[in-house]
Design goal:
Order of helices and strands: HEEEHHHH
CATH topology: Sufe protein. Chain: A
Shape: globular
Distance between the termini: 48 Å
CATH class: Alpha Beta
Strand order of the largest sheet: 1-2-3
Bound molecules: zinc ion
Structural class: alpha+beta
Helix content: 40-55%
Number of helices: 5
Radius of gyration: 14 Å
Length: about 140
């Protein structure tokens, strides 16, 4: 199996069987909504941060397979990371989809599958929407404290 086939499979698996999908809608979680008008993607995320760690991440949204699968991968990648690690991985993911070398390739895990997005610049916003939403959520939570 070549790498692009493997990557496509990760994306389709996460699209068909998304992890951490569905919002809890309680005060325990910090909620952020973002959309991507260029593709019609619409993304909601929830995060629970405790003692400087990302404890839980949920997402729910509508959109293309790149956007929805990426939300699932994002939630798995950032869970159980410290806030600093999460920020670094979010930044790494932005670099990856632009075609740059990520600093923490191993920690990115399945998110590496989006490396091919660099060849489709119009889809970069799809791939990063959930990551932008969670970045905003982390910023807002940290501002409140
Ligand atoms: Zn999209």
């Amino acid at each position: 199996m070549d790498l692009s086939t493997l990557y496509r499979q990760v994306i389709m698996d996460n699209y068909k069987n998304p992890k951490n999908k569905g919002l809890k809608k309680t005060d325990k979680y910090h909620f952020v909504h973002l959309n991507n008008p260029s593709c019609g993607d619409d993304m909601n995320v929830e995060i629970l941060i405790e003692n400087g760690r990302v404890v839980e991440v949920y997402h729910d949204g509508k959109g293309c397979s790149i956007c929805c699968s990426s939300a699932s991968v994002m939630s798995e990648t950032l869970k159980d990371k410290s806030v600093e690690e999460a920020r670094e991985l979010i930044y790494d993911f932005y670099e990856l989809v632009k075609g740059e070398e990520p600093k923490h390739e191993e920690e990115l895990g399945e998110a590496i599958a989006y490396a091919g997005v660099k060849d489709f610049p119009a889809r970069i916003k799809c791939a990063t929407l959930a990551w932008k939403a969670i970045e905003k959520a982390i910023d807002e939570v940290n501002k409140d404290e």
